[in-house]
Write a structure and sequence with these properties.
Layout: E1 8-13, E2 17-22, E3 31-35, E4 39-42, E5 62-63, E6 71-72, H1 75-95, H2 103-117, H3 123-128, H4 142-159, H5 168-181, E7 182-186, E8 192-197, E9 205-206, E10 212-217, E11 220-225, E12 236-237, H6 246-257, H7 264-268, H8 272-275, H9 287-307, H10 313-327, H11 336-351, H12 355-372, H13 378-393, H14 397-414, H15 420-431
Parallel strand pairs: 9-12
Antiparallel strand pairs: 1-2, 3-11, 4-8, 5-6, 7-8, 10-11
Length: 432
């Protein structure tokens, strides 16, 4: 670990390498530890909404006088961010609309800059210490390799004047390490805010039955118990969305983290039947019919993902509706593939500013979510938040307050009762 954290110790976890375990009891909702980011970057899409330095969300942020693209709470935050922002400030002016490095390139550039400004061990050694998921350059598929090469090219194009860039092979290894060890910082509705590296958090191993949850306070990660823990229990988070059935989860883990999970849920597959719920019929549906529909659903999900930046919102919504109609001939509305496509359709409706359409899908999603996700899931609280705010916008105050209160019950455990998101939500409810 990068420092000593009371109540926790590093140990060799059987079959997993290094891990963390508790040395005292922790209750549900109790904070195990808070971890500052080793390096972080705000998403370019969120500029103007959040402070680049502290990720504070507020109106009236001050703009950088030079590039006019970065925003800060005050001069103190701007000064604090200058060591990182100067990598981009003049480049954004020089490239104008052509300035478009990926978020991964931006984060790696900051890691390299930090290596130069701080007298610490080699940055690659530092990253190798932050978890057992390290570099898997040789294991990467062609798509991942091409993405890394594109990110690397972006780093050279936009940052080479200001950075000492390592050799090609070393840089590819660094990108691979950051891809495996990076964390996505999200807001209360699980919208993407930025990406960060947390050395201590990266020591925590994966389980599809996690004992803790990671939330964010500014740029710091907070780890809270979502199960009562006794001394000796391993600290476990989920690296992936655990809504999906066992085969899908492990496929995702192998693809992104190069291992398969052997937790109790993956061995028993106890929730798979509920997650793969089919429509009730007089005659049972043949297994091969279900298998064919699963293949169709996975293909539809992949096609939607690749179409997001190509098709219009109306076309995307039509894709969702067509796949839901096709899947609905076999799958129940509570089937996870149906829920996935409903969630995408809800997102498109929100983008199109169609609250009624978004509510229609959200109301179908929320009850199955509450059953299929574990208690204190951020996926559940974020869905209640979205629905509550949509209801409020349509003057449906009773339904809105009810949904927001359900969101708060989860968030008080996951984020802590003193978190700014919880305080804002309390105020939101009180005003109605």
């Amino acid at each position: 670990m990068t420092g000593s954290i009371e109540g926790l110790e590093r140990f060799d976890s059987p079959g997993k390498g290094r891990g963390l375990r508790v040395t005292r009891a922790f209750k549900v909702g109790e904070l195990l530890f808070s971890s500052p980011a080793y390096c972080y970057v705000l998403s370019a899409k969120e500029r103007g909404c959040y402070c680049e330095f502290c990720f504070n969300r507020k109106e009236g942020l001050a703009r950088c006088g030079k590039c006019k693209k970065a925003f800060y709470c005050n001069a103190k935050c701007q000064k604090g961010d200058w060591a990182m922002h100067k990598l981009e400030c003049s480049a954004m002016l020089a490239f104008g609309e052509n300035w478009c490095p990926s978020e991964m390139s931006r984060l790696v550039a900051r890691i390299l800059a930090k290596k130069k400004t701080q007298k610490e061990r080699c940055v690659s050694e530092k990253l190798l210490l932050i978890g057992d998921v390290q570099s898997h350059v040789e294991d990467e598929d062609n798509e991942r390799r091409e993405m890394n090469e594109a990110d690397l090219a972006g780093l050279h194009r936009f940052y080479s004047k200001h950075l000492e860039v390592p050799e090609h092979k070393d840089l590819l290894t660094l990108f691979s390490q950051v891809a495996c060890n990076g964390f996505t910082i999200e807001d209360d509705e699980l919208s993407h805010m930025g990406t960060a590296i947390y050395p201590d958090v990266a020591l925590i191993n994966h389980s599809c039955l996690p004992s803790v949850i990671v939330t964010y306070k500014g740029t710091s990660a907070e780890i809270r118990a979502v199960q009562d823990m006794k001394p000796g229990d391993e600290v476990l988070i989920s690296y992936i969305d655990i809504l999906y059935p066992t085969d899908d989860r492990n496929s995702r883990l192998r693809e992104n983290y190069y291992f398969s999970c052997e937790c109790q849920e993956c061995k028993s597959k106890s929730k798979d039947k509920a997650k793969m719920k089919v429509r009730k019929r007089r005659d049972p549906i043949e297994p091969d019919v279900i298998s064919n529909m699963v293949r169709y659903a996975r293909k539809a999900i992949r096609e939607f993902r690749t179409s997001k930046h190509i098709k219009t919102p109306s076309e995307l919504l039509e894709m969702c509706e067509q796949s839901l109609e096709e899947m609905g001939t076999i799958f129940d509305d509570a089937n996870v593939y149906m829920l996935h496509m409903m969630y995408q359709a809800m997102g498109v409706c929100l983008y199109m500013e169609d609250p009624e359409g978004a509510i229609k899908y959200g109301e179908k999603i929320i009850k199955p979510y509450s059953r299929l996700y574990p208690p204190y899931s951020l996926n559940v609280s974020s869905m209640y938040l979205k629905l509550g705010r949509l209801y409020m916008g349509l003057e449906k105050h009773s339904a809105g307050v009810s949904a927001l209160k359900k969101a708060m019950a989860v968030m008080e455990v996951a984020h802590g009762k003193d978190h700014s998101y919880v305080a804002e939500l309390r105020k939101e409810i009180a005003q109605k």
